[in-house]
Amino acid sequence: MKIFATYNIKGGVGKTSAAVNLAYLAGEDGFRTLLWDLDPQAAASYVFRIQPRVKGGAKALIRGARPLDDAIKGTDFDHLDLLPADFTYRNMDLALHKAKRPTRQLSRLLGPLAADYDIVFLDCPPSISLVSENILHAVHTLLVPLIPTTLSERTFDQLTAFIDSLDGQRPAVLAFFSMLDRRKRLHREIAARLTAERPDIAATVIPAMTVIEQMAVRRAPVPAFAPRSAAAQRYRQLWTELRGRSGLT
Amino acid sequence: MATGRCREFVIEDGAGPVPRRVAAALRPHFTVAAQTRRRARQVWLDTFDWRLHTAGLVLRQVSGARSGELVLITSAGEAVASEPLPTQRWPCLIDVIPEGPLRDRLSPVVEIRALLPVARADGTLTQLRVLDGEQKTVARITLEVTALAQPAAGPLPPRLILTPVRGYQSATDRAARLLAAADGFAPSTRSAFQTVLATAGRQPGDYSDRVDVTLPESMPARTALATVLLRLADTMEANVGFVIRDVDTEFLHDLRVAVRRTRSALRLAGDALPGDLAARFAPEFKWLGDLTTPTRDLDVNLAGFDAMVARLHAAAPGDLEPLRAQLTHQRAIECRKLARGLRSARFGKLMVSWRGALDEAAAPPRAPRRSKRAHQPTADIGSLAADRIGRAYRKVAKRGAAITAAGAAGGPPAEDMHALRKRCKELRYLLEFFGSLYDPAALRRAVKDLKGLQDCLGDFQDAEVQRAEVREFATWMLARRAAPGTGQPPVSELAATLLAMGELTSQLHAQQLRARAEVAGRFAAFARAGSLRTLGLLPRMAKA
């Protein structure tokens, strides 16, 4: 089972869009896929029309009172299930803090799902916290959407430095430019320069597009309601790149 | 990716198209959206001996023009696993299923048996989605309008199958209640598979390699014995076509066991049959048994090959690959010889005349016959069974005692081990033939005690056969290298293979030593653990 997480300390950079579309494409390719909406804002759950509610909340999941398996919901799409968000996830840090080995709890919870799923995507909340540290220990590849600005580059450097400082097995990092505005010269220049310079930045760029914003209106992944759109093609390219880098055949 | 329990409904006559009737039944709690409509072929699969059915599982392949899927559910309708699989010609071994949860679930049940088509239905499948207030799919409905195509053509009643989406079981239960309350949808009392089997005239569990005949104690011995032998003939005939097509190795195993049982029955109780029937047919069944031996021995070798390779210490696992290739090649040759033998006029004539003779023997005798050598034809099977089981047991006891005596001096000779094994087999077969005459619990205990001893003797004999074969193959490999013009392996490869075969021989020898050291103890346990008493009394423990 491969675990991917879309993560950035900043909000509004395209984490949920990437998680929803990539998880959909993984399912479309026949991988048994689970998307865990860890963000209490519950945007991914909303897109899939699933109530953002987990009985017992974050505490029950972390304590093991409710197995992860019980909370999973099927989406409308083949091979794709969702573990919904819950408003109590905002306090997940507290529940994690009380557990033994607080930075390894998500790994522990996800372990038993390996029999049922080939791929898990974690849609993470924008923060740097105990939840983030759990995610870094649990995942194989961290997907980092970046808006092509100088500050984003700086934040990405801080993140990679933090990952390098971690003990034990560290996740691979794959950043990609998101919400790129072709009209802005700075966006174009930063994206071109960093993509050429850094091997941990994907060649695929996801531009800012109206069709991506429509996901919240249509309540479905882009490739499901606009399969031939440029956005769907870009997400397909990104998925192909991620598959290749992760050795998924 | 488990979902939950499916519900099935038989569609009765009603006004309007079925999707519209479904939507009306579920309103106002749910709306219904049409999804797809396609022509599809459904093939239900199981092993020849119904292993999936016995394990409470139903496996079905659903295939359309461009895609296909294998779906495994429980007999109660719970989804277990599924796997995309393009159209496949069955029968096949489980290797055709890609690695994953479906294969993981099937493997321990199916093991080395092939999956065979039990029935096939063709028709139209219409998918509908059941949506809640958020327009979220909470269940799927499949409308099946199909007809049975194999093993016989026949109509199947149109059905609705309601499948929950994971996490929405309560919504599905509600939809099921609404459908059940509506006119025109009757909850099905039989699953789709049960309906298909009933229409096809198939009975699950209609094959078993066991001698499952019920013999009243007072039945004339010749009638009872002919009944047992007819059952064994059924087993041979059920398997022979699959052996010729080399569908899986167990068909040959079952055929071979039925032949061996037949030969034992003729040898141990053939005098109960009329005239010279036993003497006339015994050589033909020996021919048949011998015909099956080379392929079966190679099957056993190849089945245990990976385990043997895993036990190697000094040699690399790859060193034995030339031996595996040779065994596989030799098996292909022997299979062709076996198939020729089973297609021959001699085999066909044997089975026809054998059945005819047994039918005649099973009929009530016309007039009493007198013969000094033959067992009384009017004797009942109860007396004959008691007599023959007693005799067989005494032979086992005598051979066992000889083995115990030889135990101290490095164990008994191989010939004695083999002779005891044959006597044990005879006793086991008699218990199986006449098992219905005895108390089932006492019989089970006796067979279990005997099996412990047989397993030990079997380990010894298997190693003996394998050692001889390894030696034979080593000779063959060297001879082939010496022969001009043949594809010759490099000397280093040949040396590595021969050294690995040497290590293998050493391991087989160690296996024999272990069996030798154990056999006296196993026999003592067999005699001491009540087997002696139980078996000695068996004839007198007949059911009231």
Could you characterize the architecture of this molecule?
The complex is a heterodimer of chains A (about 250) and B (about 550). Chain A is about 45% helix and about 15% strand. Chain A has about 250 residues and is α/β, with parallel strands linked by helices. Chain A has one domain: Rossmann fold. Chain B has three domains: about 5-200, Hypothetical Protein Pfu-838710-001; about 210-365, CHAD domain, CATH 1.40.20; about 380-544, CHAD domain (Alpha solenoid). Chain B has helices at about 20-25, 50-55, 100-110, 170-180, 190-200, 220-245, 250-270, 275-305, 305-310, 320-345, 345-360, 380-405, 415-435, 440-480, 490-535, and strands spanning about 5-10, 30-45, 55-65, 70-75, 80-85, 115-130, 135-150, 155, 160-165, 185. In chain B, strands 1, 2, 3, 4, 5, 6, 7, 8, 9 and 10 form a ten-stranded antiparallel beta sheet that branches. The interface of A and B includes residues 48, 72, 116 and 117 of A.
Secondary structure topology:
The complex is a heterodimer of chains A (249) and B (544).
Chain A: E1 2-6, H1 15-28, E2 33-37, H2 43-47, H3 57-63, H4 68-71, E3 73-74, E4 80-83, H5 92-98, H6 105-110, E5 119-123, H7 130-138, E6 141-146, H8 150-164, E7 172-180, H9 185-197, E8 201-207, H10 210-213, H11 215-218, H12 222-225, H13 230-246
Parallel strand pairs in A: 1-5, 1-6, 2-4, 2-5, 6-7, 7-8
Antiparallel strand pairs in A: 3-4
Chain B: E1 7-11, H1 18-26, E2 31-46, H2 51-54, E3 57-63, E4 68-74, E5 79-84, H3 101-110, E6 116-131, E7 137-150, E8 154-155, E9 159-164, H4 169-181, E10 185-187, H5 192-200, H6 221-244, H7 249-269, H8 277-303, H9 305-310, H10 321-343, H11 345-362, H12 381-406, H13 414-433, H14 440-482, H15 491-537
Antiparallel strand pairs in B: 1-9, 1-10, 2-3, 2-6, 3-4, 4-5, 6-7, 7-8, 7-9
Helix pairs in contact in B: 6-7, 6-11, 6-12, 7-8, 7-13, 8-10, 8-11, 12-13, 12-15, 13-14, 14-15
